[in-house]
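User: Hello, can you help with two protein structures?

Assistant: Certainly.
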Amino acid sequence: MENIECLRRLAEIENIGWFEADFTTGEFECSEYLYELLNLDRAHISFNFVHEMYRDLVKSELMTDNSKGLREQAFPVYTKHGIQWFNSRWDRYTDAEGHIKCFGSMRLIETARDDYAIYHYLGLFQEHETEVAVQMVLRDIAKRFQADRVYIFEYDFAKNVQNNTYEECAEGVNPEIDNLKDIEIDWLPWWKEQLMNNRSILLNDLDLLKDIAYMEYLGLKEQGIKSIMVLPMQNQGKTWGYMGVDIVKTYRIWNNEDFRWFSSLVALVNLCITLRRAKDASEDNLQLFHSIFYNIPLGLETYDKNGILTSINDKDKEMYGLKDEGQIVGTLNFFHNQNIPAKHRRRVKNGEEFEFLADYDFEVARRMYDTTRVGVMKLYGRISRLYNGKGEDIGFIFISMDNTQLTDSIARIHDFEKIFEHMGDYAKVGYGRINLLTGQSMGSTQWFVNMGEDENTSMSQVVGVYPKMHPDDRKRVYEVFRKAEHGKVTTYKDEVRVAISDETDTWKWIRVNMLLDHNDRGEMVITGVNYDITELKEIEHNLIIQKEKAETADRLKSAFLANMSHEIRTPLNAIVGFSSLMAETESVDERVDYQNIIEKNNTLLLQLISDILDLSKIEAGTLEFGADKVDLAALCNDVYTTTKRLPKSGVSFYVQPNLPACNVIGDRNRISQVITNFVSNASKFTFEGSICLGYEKLPDRMVRIYVTDTGIGIAPDKREAIFDRFVKLNTFTQGTGLGLSICQSIVQQLGGEIGVDSEGIGKGSRFWFTLPIKGK
């Protein structure tokens, strides 16, 4: 047989043909096989035989010289037998006449059947591949949940033991598979009962197991486990083992999405191992795989190496709004699906396994197939490779889930939580909820702040313990919990003290409102709100103090007004009476005595009127001050001269010797008024001993002026009130009780401070005030 004939026969046997296109002239030539199969026109280049979904892509690839060397592509075409898939390879070149040409081949590809992927998927789980396949799944689970240990236990009911048969550990976590062999099933009764009754085990905190199943708690605690999730693995309604996830390094709060995904992966692994154990019953295995494949609550699609869809399950059809999978199986190419981001399609072509999120637009999908759905779906996707029994890559499986409702719900919840969190932070309001039996809880950051705890602390370590709460308040809360256990209390409101720091003598006030109830399983659930009322308590305390001060001032003012007529009448009576007597008496000595009495009462009346006027000016804010240079030594001597007759007989009054030179800036008369008032008060209450007037320089360019006496002294509890208005420590002495209050106002407006020192009754006193020094 000649070579040309051999090549023709070979092309027919292998379903392959050649083609050549001249893009300069538009002419097209191909082999007889392709002319006949594709009903082509020999004259001109046309792409009408290519399926319309791929037509533009094929045309672009052929006519654009964007790379060198051979190129390859798979696409569906219209043939006399219907739509069939071809794999094409070609090369572009320029001939001697300068024409741009393309020469290549097209080879028919067998179309895939639904069960094609199933048989190959089963091939992955043949006995010699099972160990590797299961280990890959465990590794994937560990990555998905960031777990420290993922494992599978199988029951040996003949020996009544359980064995750890598969294990995947994170870096830094010690394997336990060799230590967990031949463990008696009955040794862990609670564990056995849960799994044999097809119930899962989810624990956010291992300590919650202590009171429920102590033996199980000890066994898991020895392995360093903090959080755990375990699901039973069943075949024909009977539990034959279980798969679990251990969190060792930290705690994890399991949620519904975690449980749903883990359940799906457990179902796949369950299928894998079940098929291995029942490899002799191939028909049953195929039926089981069909059942799981088509009923698993996730969308499943299988593709061959070229990206052609080979099968989908029922959930997938529902997700994508397909009425008939026949319109896409065998035609839809994953690598041309514009709803899958280009970077992810490239990763799949490179043989990678990964998961991703994408927006799946059904308007874009409608260009590829008929769908009943509209809008955009929030798609979660997972790519896993498919291998045959020889370990050869035959394609991939696409696992998908519609996350639209969940994503929207989570977004709304997050928005609400964010708003509520901001409101809580602003108002210092925290909220929380805890199941006292299981320890499942949730709480806002402000709840922990209000309770004096770190937000990373488990709520179960706070509720029922309350380490930062005042012991007296803690007792009340404990008593409420005891009553709630017996259904006697369902609500509780209280104000409690919480330590601001480790110093237990510093507290903040927290208002707590709690609902204490039992759920359907009889477990006590506490829902509560707390908010910081420390500032309100301080305001309340200050208001009480101000109220008491106002009431005291009102009483003193009333007493002052009641006594004012007496205070004014006393010196006036003396002045009037002794003025009359002085006119009638002929004795010079008596006249001098009368004159002294009149002068003394004139001074007293003048001081009384001055105090009242000064008080009025202070109230009105019109008390005026000069800004003179005042020599304190000269001023003290002047005050001594004018007041040296005030002390009683037997009391010495003197100015401190050797006073240093000192000048201040202020109103000389007001400074003199304060010193004179100090001397006058000392004279009233000093009956023996001495009165000393002086001053001393202080750091920070201040000077302290003082009047020290050996008089009756001041009780410690009276020192703070002595500068208040209308206060008189001795009601039998003359005066309005305004002098020291006025002195305080004068000193404060001069930029100084005023005070009194006294060791107590009978030990004298020292009145003083400070002023800033002028110059160097």
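That covers the first. Now for the second protein you mentioned:
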Amino acid sequence: MTKLSRCLLLVTFLFGLLPGASAISSGERFESAVQPLQEIVNPPNTESHINSSPYVFRRSWGGEADQIMYPQGMVITDDGNLIVANSGLNRITLINQNDNTMTTIGGFGTDPGSFDWPSEVAMAADGTLFISDSGNNRVQHITIEGEVLNYWGNYGSEIGQFNNPSGIAVSGDNFVYVTDDLNDRVQKFTISGQFVNSWGSSGTGPGQFNRPEGLVIDDLGYVYILDSNNDRVQKFDANGNYSLQWGTRGWADDQLLSPDAIAIDNSGNILVADYSTRIRIFSSSGLFLGYLYEVIGLPEVPAWIRGLAVDSHGAVYVSMYNYDEINKHAPDGTYLRDWGSKTLGAGKFRFPDALALTSSGEILVPDSNNHSIQVFTPYGSVRAIIGQEGSGPGEFFVPSDVTTDSTGNIYVADGGNSRIQVFNQNWDFIREFGSEGYGDGQWDCLTSLAVDSDGNIYGLDACTEKVQKFSNTGQFLLSWIPDQGASWGPESIHIDQSDHVYVSHGVILQYDQDGKYLRSFGNYGHGIGELYVPCGFHVTSNGNLFIADAGKDEIIVLDSSGNYLYSIGSPGYHVGEFGGPKDIAVTPAGSVYVLDSANQRVQFFSPQAITPDPTTGLALNGSFENEPPLMEWTCGGKLPVNRSTISSHGSYSIRLGQPVTQTEQGMREAWAYTSIYVDPAWNRPMLTFKYRMFVNDIMDYSDFYVAIQDGAGLNHLETVMRDGFQPCTPGQPPTAAQDLGWRMGSYDLSAFKGQHIRIVFSNRNLWPQSWGIWTNVDDVRVLDAGPMPPLTGPYKANLPLIFNKKCDVPLLLNGKVLERPGIDLY
């Protein structure tokens, strides 16, 4: 029997039961204007979870709060904010519709406040949340800030136990109802978690269930249950007494096909979404009333709706499970806006599998379920997206690894196509070799690649457990099985500068180029310095081994003799924490990139601290003069980000967006951030910046926005500024491309001392009807402004800097527009 990869099994477990790869493609490549960046290190990290390592967290990208993966149930707060069970990322995502910011609660784990595949969220009258934590077989009761108030349940079929709890709802009289999916029943609890009663059993009769999924409760206390595999809705009173049912399997108006989402609209009608992607409207007695609308997906991949919600205005929210997207529609079905992306998102991942560095310092990440390779600058800006789903040259199906040789050629383990593809450094296709099978030159589970100094190529098959060696033209040379008593299959392969071949196989095994065993590194176990599930690893020029241990959620560092030196990280999802790290790369300068797979991101660490730049302070290259351009800044979005010669001083600024005509532009955004550690020793760290907006639209539709996020981009911490064109006549747009002139702003960062934060500048089109805006930003500084002066006048506290001009009229002197300073709190 073939041994399996623990890395694959573990990360699959962390993500729950993964659907099949979807046919989502990106085109052949996406190009960005951002230029290569150089290596710079940042201030010291004093947070304990970096352990005793000498490494400093710099930044991360990929798994920020705005990433949505396999969304399911959701609820709308009284003030219109959206709370989503973001199942694929094991967290709850909160979307503020007023300023379009997001925050998160939780992350993968079994501790209170962590989740394993949360599937539904409900809100009590006091505003607290109840979460069906499906993979942990429990219910969690939390505040909207993430504080755990209570939790109950574990695996089983006894009273108060669960087997995949899914739907959850809170009644008006404060009882919590949970559909206990694989136990085919509904359980009722008090709001404090005390069991009240349950009803249901396996079957097709009235009051019986086959995979009960969602549920809702109307104002009269009636409970409506989606009996999914019985293709029907059942209605009960508050005590579980059967009332009625409707639906049979089929495509007709009054039939259902595996219904997965249910909601109640403002008229008391029942909305049901099923596999047909149509949202049907029924009366509370089950009478078919019509269709709300049909949700459209790609022709080959129908949309799978797993959540519905209706707000106080009657707008309907739909969670598009297999498109990683939330859609909002008006009561008549008109599309309004969305969150997430139904296509490949630049800088976002869908089960990344590995990473590699090129000689120029770019980072290559196989984005396996998007069937592409993402190319990043050293600071996380997207350079290109290579490939799409397919089997032709330059196409991929679940690519699992990528590596380079000394000439710059790029090798991709195209695992789903059982082949290795070779490209030059410009991503021009050169050749491919390999096929599906078990013989020489064939692959069953091609997972990892390495290239030696002679250009020979080594591939690792985790299923057949073989290492196969090929010439640089793809000719099969030899193979061996790296089995030194390990109980699991091999995970990853690496070659050092002396052409020793290393394989992670419970421990790290070393071979020569002909497959002769030489020695092993590390010991299996859970203790300090021991290896539990070693996945990807890197051997540095001095022989140190950096090992991504997905079982212990840390990076373990051994010296050339195999002695333990230190670890980086710990389990979690915050700065410097990991969830199933699968791969690692170390630059010649010693900086470390970690593929934090279950957290869907890359984290970047540097080996030492820096002295703040004398001009811009902690915001390095905030003048945008340094070469290469835009170094120390991570840029992205669906609008371009470039360096511009429109500047407030010097030669350059950064431009968010681009000049566009005064027509509808769609919902898009351009953003740039820099990550800093706010030195707690500073008296008053002050952020200052200048910006110049060119506007086609009023601020309600298109704006310039400055925010503070936590270091990993998971939580919106503060709004610094929101600005744009504010007409003197309400609703009157500006003339096309109106120049609002240079403005300036400042903000006290003292509240964030001792924290890693992101300073994010965004240029946003907020609605599909937006006409667009583009903004130049310059002279970004974070400097110590000295001791805090006494606060006088109206400024008794450090409030957000938000422009609230009565209206936007240019200041003129002799016909020339004057520079207009922004509001300074002091």
